[in-house]
Amino acid sequence: MKYTFADRHNGPREAQVSEMLKVVGASSLEELVQQTVPHDILTNERMALDEALSESEYLALLKQIAARNIPFRSMIGMGWYGTSTPSVILRNIFENPAWYTSYTPYQAEISQGRLEALMVFQTMISSLTGFSLSNCSMLDDATAVAEAMRMMYELRGKEARAAGKNLLFIDRNIFPHVLSVVKTRAEALNIEIELGDSANWIIKERCFGAILQYPGADGSVNDYAPFCEKAHERGVLVTAYCDLLSLALFKEPAAWGADIAVGSAQRFGLPMGFGGPTAGFMATRDEFKRNLPGRIIGLSYDRLGGKGYRLALQTREQHIKRERATSNICTASALMATMTGMYAVWYGPEGIREIAENACRYAHITAAALERNGYTIVNKNFFDTIEIKAPNVEAIRSRAIENGMNFFYPDEGTIRMSFDELSCRKDIDAISEIFQIRITETDCTASEAMARQTPILVEDIFNKYHSETEMMRYIKSLERKDISLAHSMIPLGSCTMKLNAAVEMLPLSWAEFGNVHPYAPANQVAGSLQIVNDIEHDLAVITGFEKCSLQPNSGAAGEYAGLITIRNYFRATGQTGRNIMLIPTSAHGTNPASAAMAGFTIETVSCDECGNIHVEELREKAEKAGENLAGMMITYPSTHGVFEVRIREIMDIIHEFGGMVYMDGANMNAQVGLTSPGLIGADICHLNLHKTFAMPHGGGGPGVGPICAGKTLSPYLPGHPIVPECGGAGMTAVGAAPYGSPLLLIITHAYIKLLGPDGLRRASQIAILNANYMSAMLQPDFSTLYTGATGRVAHECIIDLRHFKAEYGVDATDIAKRLMDFGFHAPTLSFPVHETLMVEPTESESKEEMDRFVETLKYILDECRRIASGELDKEDNPLRMAPHAANEVCGDEWNHPYTRSEAAFPLEWIRNNKFWPGTARIDNGLGDRNLITKL
Fold first, then answer.
1. Contacts of residue 18, Cβ cutoff 8 Å, sequence gap at least 6
2. Strand ranges (DSSP E) for 146-286?
């Protein structure tokens, strides 16, 4: 065939590559790369990866892999349950590039659709938990519990801090994976954990917080109100780790005294996917709003007085507060949160109650029959999970396998089974055969103990869209308000918004991969494990390391996991005093927050006027730290958009003083096939599969942030209590599922197999070409702030606007808003340098699209000059008033001194495909001062 996948993936055509090389002043891609990447780390060695496949070849291969998964009915529970994604949501959101290719909604005016969808999610969580405030998703249930622990720790009063209160109580009836993640976080923060039975545990003086699972791991539904009352008398906060579906029937945690509620929304229409992705949640009282980690969507008003949604309070706080941030969460799981919120919209309160009642009813029917036949049911009050004591567990397990069913076996004499949305008569018949009893489907209701007394989902949004026509149109109305890669280039620096090819995305809907429980026996999930093993191998090759862990389920989680691996190594080798982490100002924004979470003391290293690390300062600080030096976090190429030529020297300095080098993989798109963290000299790195390796951003997640390590650190990679073979022996977990979000791994698997070693290298070359082309085309009107030793940028460039305020009376924010009128999302705004734009076109953007963006910026600059000359008003001008929404441009009144056409159609090509911002400019401060987080 004429075109390979690489030809389709890369934007510029061959003839255009030659034109672009002339613009940047290079004779070939190889010469450009040699001018960009330092010679001592540049390699021409071909990566040892499989040769590239065609799309049809890959899909045929993937069908063979999928067939290796054996379809079992898993009633394992333990945080993952059977559910069915409504087709109207699957088709119109999950499989829709307008939803999955959008970015975190920092630019509110062109993100109103997903902001409203996330408000729906927050409203759902608040309704079910009984709390007034919810964030717009967490990574998963286990990390949400760990974040709640830290939140309670940070909420200690002055006296408690002075007294050194650092004891956390956890009721032992909790899922092992949740406990493992909490232990990992607690150790880094010097928090002590004590397990016990909440019914008789005496609250100790050093205790600051408690975690209670509701219902418990064994399914028990307990009244925790007496415990909460005693805890509050002692100044102890309580977190409820909840099953969200159970709250449709059982008393909400706010009603029985909890202070924080966390959990997973997986049961609301998200496939198990061998562990993920899912959507965690956290809700609390309004008084704790400044301490709530993650992203919060709030209501505000725009310039015209209309309502508009926006990210509130902690927006980008990691990039501002750095090591003082409350969390390192950069993005969470927006796409999955959107789907679960729409699941509640689709079913409404009656439907959600029916789904919960279905699981509850079949659990009670089964429990009653088992008890009649002599089996002991451990839990008397329960929702959907029953724990059975049986003398013949192995025989039951064998018959379960014969009948295609999986249960969970906590110990030799115990069986645990969880019912769900999909439970039906067929399950009952299979269980009858397995236990060799007769189960009759009689009326059987749950105990009234802890029954919910308040209504759920009373808001209008959950009570109006129950026909598919109306639901489809509501989803479409939201979609039309958002810019995504389906509309135009999203040139966000350090975010790598590249193509998410259709062939990579299609298999995510395959049931063979979606209906797989993460704790299913290995022989049933050979296909999913092959995807895992292939990616672990390929990423290790690409990074130049020995081993890979796929467990971290975001980039920031990968940073944290890499640092925890370093910490594990030092503790195992008796070097517990190594706690100083050096971080240059050119590192990725979340690095300091991640280091603080991992328990390190941060020392900042400055950069020179060219954006390079002050190597002499680095040596001084490394030498001063001495035996206390843990290592260094470095982003490469740096967030300043350059390959630093002294990188090998930097590695050597850290190693000379016994430290480890952690490399942030946020900018790996400029490395693949050209160099590697291992070749450069790093010890461990993380990767953003949702950047370099083609996973979409989903409007703010989910992401995947695997870590790759060399031989020294590999034994200390994260482990898992249920699936220990996934990582380091005896190591605790950093995420809920053993392999993170395996359903998403198919995307990266496809990307690597379709491009092959040569295609991957070519993608890096084109990414570097595109960035240098845009930098050159914008000059001399716009200067690039930092370039490398030869005047080149890596895969992104920082455009300097620091003089615009004084010269033209406009700032970088005004330009970002004005770009919306041209149908563009702004580049990264004022990071890493204030009043700049960081531009990253990626290899996927065409020359035509980049030329349109350059033309747009130059037109906006001309508008700035017209302001300076007095031709345009200093206040009422197209930049200060941007963006211009349709209701204003098409309204009866127009009071601006410039024309409607100047506002909405400043360049002729905009008329052919106009994107209208959802609102006029939104007042951020107003929304923070009057926080409203529910519909």
1. none
2. 167-171, 192-196, 207-214, 237-243, 260-264, 280-284
And the tokens for 536?
Answer: 């672990």
* Helix or strand run (H / E) with residue 126: helix 112-129
Strands 385-389 and 376-377: antiparallel
Q: What is the pTM of this model?
A: 0.97
Counting Cα atoms < 13 Å in the Cβ hemisphere of 587 gives: 29
Chunked mean pLDDT (size 10), the chain, 935 residues: 87 97 98 97 97 97 98 98 98 98 95 98 98 96 97 95 96 98 95 97 96 97 97 97 98 98 98 97 95 93 96 62 64 93 98 97 95 94 96 96 97 96 96 94 72 97 98 98 97 95 97 97 98 98 98 94 97 96 89 92 93 95 97 96 96 98 96 98 97 95 96 97 91 96 98 98 98 98 95 97 97 98 96 96 98 98 98 98 97 97 97 97 90 92
- Which residue, 481, 470, 344, is CA-closest to 935? 344
Q: Which letter does DSSP use for residue 117 in this model?
A: H
75, 417 contact by CB (below 8 A): yes
Residue 170 CA, chain-centre distance (Å), reads 27
Instruction: Locate all alpha helices (DSSP H) within 586-639, ordered by sequence.
Output: 591-597, 615-625
Distance of CA 655 to the CA centre of its chain: 32
Q: How many residues are given for the chain?
A: 935
243 contact partners, CB below 8 Å, separation of at least 6:
214, 215, 263, 267, 383, 384
Q: Is 502 exposed, middle or buried (0-12, 13-18, 19+ CB in 10 A)?
A: exposed
Q: What is the secondary structure of 533-567 as a DSSP string?
A: HHHHHHHHHHHT-SEEE----SHHHHHHHHHHHHH
Among candidates 283, 258, 295, 238, which has minimal Cα distance to 133? Answer: 283
Here the tokens at position 181 are: 């993640």
State the helix-helix crossing angle for 334-372 and 112-129, rounded to 10 degrees: 30
Crossing angle of helices 425-435 and 334-372, in 10° steps, is 50
Structure tokens at 134: 């919810």
